[in-house]
Automatic annotation (TrEMBL):
<dbReference type="InterPro" id="IPR023210">
    <property type="entry name" value="NADP_OxRdtase_dom"/>
</dbReference>
<dbReference type="Pfam" id="PF00248">
    <property type="entry name" value="Aldo_ket_red"/>
</dbReference>
<protein>
    <submittedName>
        <fullName>Aryl-alcohol dehydrogenase-like predicted oxidoreductase</fullName>
    </submittedName>
</protein>
<dbReference type="InterPro" id="IPR036812">
    <property type="entry name" value="NAD(P)_OxRdtase_dom_sf"/>
</dbReference>
<dbReference type="InterPro" id="IPR050523">
    <property type="entry name" value="AKR_Detox_Biosynth"/>
</dbReference>
<feature type="domain" description="NADP-dependent oxidoreductase">
    <location>
        <begin position="10"/>
        <end position="315"/>
    </location>
</feature>
Length: 317
């Protein structure tokens, strides 16, 4: 159980590799320490991680979380569960051409499967994992409305969706009197990729938190979560390089500012990046596989950047 004196952490623990690349004992240790450090939100998906699974299907991550909760009486009241649907392959090797999608039937079936694997009766935040233009967004919204009205889902969010489809979904939700999408989950970090380039690891057409989505989120009070905020460790791990798409003069200046602030603070560059995202109201999702990585990130959440530091990091090139 967590100590009431420990501040609640705004960070999210990403469970994508639990049960596949990360074994169950390590997954349990990461989850336990996350809660001990004041962590609340845990993020997964019904398709995690089909690409590393011998079956070619997802579900391992949710199943590990379900077993962890079953082994930790009382923890369900302390944590919030976030999971995604729509990207699970219809059969092994069928992704991305043939995936579950966002039809009413697919949403009902996927939500039921997630509840079963997680061993819970309610999902705190259910995400539409990636857009599905083969289905009218109104059908998707009405299927979500069934889940929220039944109490099996508390909130709904959109990951890897263009802003205009989110707006259409929110408008329809308001029209039929149901809960609208109130959260984005997108790729976001401190460095900016060159326009027109594709980020490594971001396979979704609208997966990057761009200026239009940022403006939409600000204007409408949309909560924003950031995946891959630390560039898979490239800010600090000498064995990893920052992708070539980030190599431009603007980022040269940004890295210089980042180095200066990190040096003055005696912190890692990645810790300053996390603190900067939090200063802008963005929840970073942690994807590390080791306890020391988790500890470093949780320490970063305790940093508060001064207004002049945020201003320096925000300044245009």
């Amino acid at each position: 159980m967590t100590d009431d004196r420990i501040p609640v952490s705004p960070l999210v623990l990403g469970a994508m590799s639990f049960g596949t690349r990360i074994d169950e004992d390590t997954s349990f240790a990461l989850l336990d320490r996350f809660v001990e450090r004041g962590g609340v939100w845990i993020d997964t998906a019904d398709c995690y991680s089909f690409w590393d699974s011998p079956t070619g299907h997802g579900g391992a991550s949710e199943a590990v979380l379900g077993r962890w909760l079953a082994a930790r009486p009382g923890f369900r009241e302390q944590v919030r569960l976030s999971t995604k649907l729509g990207a699970e392959p219809l059969w092994p090797g069928s992704w991305p051409e043939r995936r579950a999608g966002l039809s009413a039937r697919a949403i009902r079936d996927a939500a039921a499967g997630s509840l079963d694997r997680l061993g819970v009766d309610q999902i705190d935040l259910l995400w539409l994992h990636q857009e599905d233009r083969s289905v009218p967004i109104e059908e998707t919204v009405e299927a979500l409305a069934e889940l929220t009205s039944a109490g099996t889902v508390r909130r709904v969010g959109a990951s890897n969706h263009p802003a205009w489809r989110v707006e259409r979904a929110r408008a329809h939700a308001k029209q039929i009197g149901t809960l609208p999408i109130d959260a984005f989950q997108l790729n976001s970090t401190y460095l900016r990729a060159r326009p027109g380039t594709r980020l490594p690891g971001v396979i979704h057409r609208f997966g990057v938190f761009d200026d239009e989505q940022r403006d939409y989120a600000t204007e409408h009070g949309i909560e924003t979560w950031a995946y891959t905020p630390l560039l898979s460790g490239a800010y600090d791990n000498p064995d990893k390089t920052i992708a070539e798409v980030y190599d431009h003069p603007g980022n040269t200046r940004r890295l210089a500012v980042l180095d200066e602030i990190a040096g003055e603070r005696g912190a890692q560059r990645g810790q300053i990046v996390l603190a900067w995202l939090l200063a802008h109201g963005i929840r970073p999702i942690l994807g590390g596989s080791r306890l020391d990585q988790l500890e470093t990130a949780m320490d970063a959440a305790l940093l508060t950047l001064a207004p002049e530091e945020v201003e320096a990091m925000d300044a245009p090139a």
